[in-house]
Amino acid sequence: MGLKEEFEEYAEKAKTLPEKTTNESKLILYGLYKQATVGPVNTSRPGMFNMKEKAKWDAWKAVEGKSTDEAMSDYITKVKQLLEEGTAST
To answer: What distance in Å separates the CA atoms of residue 42 and residue 77, rounded to the nearest whole number?
Structure first.
C-alpha cells in the first residue's frame, strides 16, 4: 500500500476517533490533512469573531513548511496515536 492509500485509509479512521479526543488534537489533524491535500495556506486568516475557523487556519498555517508526503505521514502517525489512546483508556 502506498502512502496516499494509507493516508486515505487513516482519514476514514479519523472519523471514528473517540468523542473525548481533544480539540487540540483535532486541530493538529486538520492542519496536517489540509497541508497534505491542499498544500500551503491559500486563504487569508479569518476575522477575530470567527474563532473556530481562525483556530483551524492557525493549525494549517503551523504545518505550512511540510511536504505533502511529510504531512501525510505525520497525519497517519497522529491518527494511530489517538486511536491507541482511545482504546487504551476504555
So the answer is: 25
